[in-house]
Amino acid sequence: MSDAQAQEEQNQVRLLEAQRSRKAAQEDALRLANRVAQLQKEDEKAKKRIQETQKRASEIRNLRKRNEDHKLEKEALNQQRNRELAMQMEQLTVAKRENERRKQESAEFLARQKREMREMTKGEQASHERQLAEQRLLERKKALESKEAVRQKQQECKEKQLSEKQKQMEQNRLEYERRLAEETKEQQKKEKELQKLAQQEMELIERLQHKQLEQRTAYEELESALGLKKGESRDAFPKTSGPVAAEPGLADEPDEQEVAKQFGILDEEGTGFIATGQLNSLMTNLGISLNDAQLEQATSQLDKDNAGKISFGEFLLWWSG
């Protein structure tokens, strides 16, 4: 049994060694395969680099050849231009020489002509100077005549302007006299109108005074008919007209002319009316002060139709009543 066991152990040992050897061989084969694959990749890369290098070298050779061809063409073109420039310079030199020759010929021709002209003008110069002197004298004479004509024209213009000015002054004088006559006539007309209005005013005042006398006579007849004594009517019958605040018999009571004057001051437009609102101012100007009740009573008596205005006639009758 021991031999069999020993044999079996040896077999197992050999089996393990064989397995180890197989695994080592597999690992070596794998590493070798990897190195081969890597070498193949490097070989492909090397081939590509060689191809690119060859391609680049070919491009460089082509570029160098093109540059050399371009250089040769440029040199040929420069040579052609130099030849053309040389030809042009030669042509310019020939043209310059020809131009100088022509200039010299022209100068000689002009010199000959000048000499001929001097010889021709020697005899004509004196005649020409005489003609110039005669022409200057003629021009001076014409200038004097023109100056005299201008002076005469200016004198005529001055005389014409003076005549027109005198004529205008005469027209202005006549116009002034006409306007003065019109203004005088208008003034006389206005004075006549003022006199007429003054006369009319006096007639109205006399008429109002006459009406006042008639009214007083009527009051006296009424007092006589009622059997009242003289002076009792003021107490028996309340006063319905006249300045309500005025005391009878005042020595300094304004007369009718003063009333007309104060009324005219308020009647700025000369219509013969004043506004009812101006009644208090009129009474104040006449030296009479009214309280509110008196002013209301006077307004109702003077503006019975509530027209908002008071006539001079109504006020004068009321004042004198």
TrEMBL record:
Entries under SUPFAM superfamilies matching the protein: EF-hand (SSF47473)
Region (Disordered): 1-26, 144-171, 230-254
GO molecular-function term, one example from the UniProt record: calcium ion binding
Annotated CDD domains: EFh
Superkingdom in the source lineage: Eukaryota
Basic and acidic residues compositional bias, start-end: 17-26
Xref: InterPro entries: EF-hand-dom_pair, EF_hand_dom
Bias kind Polar residues: ranges: 1-13
Name assigned to this protein: Calmodulin
Biological classification of the source: Eukaryota, Viridiplantae, Chlorophyta, Pyramimonadophyceae, Pyramimonadales
